[in-house]
Amino acid sequence: MAEVGVAAEDELTAGAPAPDLLSLHETIAGMFAKQGDWRRAYEHLRSALDIARAGSLRDTLTSSYNRRYLDQRLPGLPAARGLAVALIDLDRFKHVNDTYGHLLGDRVLCRVADLLQEELPPDGFCARYGGEEFALVLPGVDAPRAVRIVEAARTRVARHPWSELQPGLRVTISAGLAHASAGPVSAQRQLLRADNLLYAAKRAGRNKVAYHDRETTHVITHSE
């Protein structure tokens, strides 16, 4: 029986597919428990728990973080060194689903998530906020840099060769960017400000980034 347990553990370390790691750890833990090797059984159960916990914070479709992770992480981030939150929405995504089908729509969501996660600062992260909405959280950046990061993400999406997925397909995003740099700012207020700015970007014609300084709301204009 011991040989079976070692063989299974070797299979794990040899690189089993990631989706099977949870069940594999649980199986190996059961094998070691039957042998009375409680220490090694416990180690594999802890690994299974870590995998399950990490999986609960990831969006199952896009593999980006999910709303639960955002709700847990955002309130603990300090604004003293700058904290930017951008809410991003895919423009006319219902038209994509209605025209090309939900399977291609899912592929679009995955590709957009990948593009949004490029070139983020070290502590920054992307989370799927819900449906076709994503949140970019950028700790430790000043307002001008936050604008550059979000505008670069918008540009990557707009210039991506979407026709390679489906001829005629075009995908753009709109973004509302809220920035805080001093004093306590609640996560809920930060998200609400970003959401209001997102609608300003939509009203301005979509495929735009809206942000607010001390005096007024700005919408980045461009030609794509």
TrEMBL record:
GO MF annotations in UniProt: diguanylate cyclase activity
SMART domains tied to this protein: GGDEF
What the entry lists under PROSITE patterns is as follows:
GGDEF
User: What's the Enzyme Commission number for this chain?
Assistant: 2.7.7.65
Q: Which GO annotations describe the biological process of this protein?
A: cell adhesion involved in single-species biofilm formation; negative regulation of bacterial-type flagellum-dependent cell motility
Annotated coiled-coil positions are: none
Domain annotation GGDEF: ranges? 81-214
Q: Which CDD domains match?
A: GGDEF
Q: Which UniProt keywords apply?
A: Nucleotidyltransferase, Transferase
Q: Which Gene Ontology terms of cellular component type are present?
A: plasma membrane
What PANTHER family does its record include? Answer: DIGUANYLATE CYCLASE DGCM-RELATED (PTHR45138:SF9), REGULATORY COMPONENTS OF SENSORY TRANSDUCTION SYSTEM (PTHR45138)
Q: What is this protein called?
A: GGDEF domain-containing protein
- Source species, please? Amycolatopsis carbonis
Supply the source organism's classification.
Bacteria, Bacillati, Actinomycetota, Actinomycetes, Pseudonocardiales
